[in-house]
């Protein structure tokens, strides 16, 4: 995952957050020289002075930063001189320095090391930041200057990056509705407000529905098969809810992890049905009317903005550009994914039959028997693997090593850069010629005050115009070892490290003039490409052999264990690809509805959408059903869920190029860095990719590496 501070996605998310977080806290702290954000940091790379920053410093700094940026923007808009690139775009890029440095640091600590003060600050700032974005994007005078330059852009002899800045900025304004008449803007605001309210309703209802969907029983036998830890958690959950016996809460996905363990088939079916119908009980928590109306509003808003449907509006600034491209991609992949899933289903049915199950595989059986097949086929024992993956060793001899072999960069740990939490490590990254390139922070261990998952972002954005080098961080949630014990991680954690460092490299190599186009400031259907690409090196023989060594003896991992890891890595690929594709198709089908389409019946719509796309497999339901698909109704991912698989395609296609051009070599790495990783969003991304790859991306490599044929 990646946080994109300056993208349109962040804008959408910020606007969506408005209604969730009205707190009424007053901003009374004054902002002055005693605030550590007042001046540009004097630390190397302008690193944030975390040793001097107090929780109370963020809010006044961010608010003063918004006020400063607004003043700067108003000055640009009010300029009496005719609009030029130099008197409009350059000062726009230079504006908001205080806001950027305060907000980047704030986002880092509020995501990875939060507390009540930071949470209250977050709640207070969210609506202010959304209003701030609106004030810029709906400033008519500013847009008139941007549009005037945009119309003349080909006569201005701009360099390619400046031309791209004009085009991207103009598109962002248009995307936000700047081109509309006053009445159009008023209508847009109405749509946005209604969508935001409905999204909020959806979220509230879904939260309650998910809570109510928990499975409760006093009969321990019904839960036979659960590990002692999970059973204890279920007893604890029951106590927490003042319920009798055991409670198994629902997770947000259709499939529930406990289904892999529970032996009683009837219990499995009940839990599955609880999940599948959680928001469809016709009660106060039913979300179906809400989502049907959200889809309709989005279609109407798209029409207002001049697009045939919401997906066309959303994809207009993405790499895929049109819903048709994304739909074609998905329909090419669907038969391959379902074909592999059907082969997995046959293996699973065989396991059921061998067990004398006497039933036909259903969705609630899949996880349990897939686990059995996995054990029989691959026999991979996690505890035998972990001693070969000591965190610090994986970082320096795996993740850094692969980057060194490919790009020639080197790393040196710095102990004197202030951090926001003692577990955080900081490395200086040096270029091939020894020049300082970036700072890299890593914060890998799980804490109670850290968001779940793993992500990357910037503390300082790279820009040659601003004279800033990138300061990057990776955050994850690996188990904290007992004091004095080594941190031994799983292979999937190893993959996470390579993934997040792939994002980090996209930031570290950023070499652009404009901050708005720098590093990971790319569309959603591109940004997960460098990260998923970098995952490929984790199992690359030369890299793997370099880091997968026993933490006590230094011995390499036995060949048979390596083989098992490789085989297990692809197991269940058919199922997981199919369930994600089905969800992505639902997302896209909902969002290609036109403005004049009638209000849909969600169950009927969903059934037809899955049938039409050949993804209506009873044993493999979509990863999220329409009625509980949080990503698309509340989290800013609408018409964007396909990006997960699209970027997998790019990653595999790109790795195939390396694979057929000598693999892990400096020549290959340098070329990729020069043509892709350093370029941010400075070029049309489809063109950028094709220029580097020599052809358009295709699913062929995906078929090969994921064993889909
Ligand atoms: Zn990612």
The Cα radius of gyration reads 26 Å
Helix content: 40-55%
- Number of helical stretches of at least 4 residues: 28
* Number of DSSP-assigned strands: 7
> How far apart lie the N and C ends?
29 Å
Query: How confident is the prediction overall: mean pLDDT?
Result: 93
DSSP strand content: 5-15%
Judged by helices, strands and strand pairing, the structural class is mainly alpha
Small molecules (ligands, ions, cofactors) in the structure: zinc ion
Unreliable residue stretches: 5-28
Q: Give the biggest sheet.
A: 5 strands, mixed
The largest beta-sheet arranges its strands as 3-4-5-7-6
**Backbone shape:** globular
Blueprint (SSEs and pairs):
Elements: H1 8-17, H2 58-78, H3 85-94, H4 97-112, H5 116-137, H6 140-151, H7 160-175, H8 182-212, E1 215-217, H9 228-240, E2 246-248, H10 265-276, H11 288-304, H12 310-315, H13 323-354, H14 363-378, H15 382-385, H16 391-407, E3 410-414, E4 425-430, E5 436-445, E6 455-460, E7 471-478, H17 491-508, H18 524-527, H19 529-535, H20 541-547, H21 559-569, H22 573-591, H23 602-612, H24 630-633, H25 643-659, H26 666-677, H27 685-693, H28 700-705
Parallel strand pairs: 5-7
Antiparallel strand pairs: 1-2, 3-4, 4-5, 6-7
